[in-house]
Amino acid sequence: MAKLTTSLQMKGRTFSGRTYKIFDDKIAGFIEEREALKQTIHKTLETEQYEYPIYSFDYGIAWKELVGQERAYVRAEMKRMIQEALLTDSRITDVDGFDFSFSGDACKCTFHVGSVYGEMEIETEVQI
Question: Which residues contact 107 (CB under 8 A, 6 or more apart)?
Fold first, then answer.
């Protein structure tokens, strides 16, 4: 009987240190390393997961799951969601130092990202 073999190899995602610069009304020029990573982080945080078929199922964050939830739950889930979404990027080494503030139906979250380009502070706000 013949033995089945395959040459399939699984590779992890790698991320480039260079990308296009995205403005509110156009895409122009390039940015590199730290600024490219910062733009990637903000794009990931601003994209609702599962909302746009152009993105893979694991891109973005499912913020809608937090609508109407208690603040303690929102804190824990936001932290988990952000860490899971960002740590898939090989340039990011750590996501921690979370701080949350609530105002009405909004939750503002500030946190630190450790990367191959150094530390940076990121802020995002979600309607809950």
Answer: 66, 71, 74, 75, 78, 100, 101, 125, 126, 128
> Domains in the chain and their CATH numbers?
18-127 (3.10.450.40)
Q: Give the model confidence (pLDDT) of 45-104 as tens digits.
A: 999 888 877 877 778 999 999 999 999 999 999 999 999 999 999 999 999 999 999 999
Q: Which residue has the tokens 């609530």?
A: 102
pTM confidence score? 0.82
- From 98, 89, 103, select the one nearest 121 (Cα to Cα): 98
- Give me 6's structure tokens: 């395959």
3-state SS, 28-78, equals EEEEEHHHHHHHHHHHHHHCECCCCCCCCCCCCECHHHHCCCCHHHHHHHH
Q: Which two tokens stand for residue 99?
A: 């701080």
For 49, the token pair is: 């997961």
The 10s digit of each residue's pLDDT in 26-35 is 988 999 999 9
- The two structure tokens encoding residue 110: 């500030």
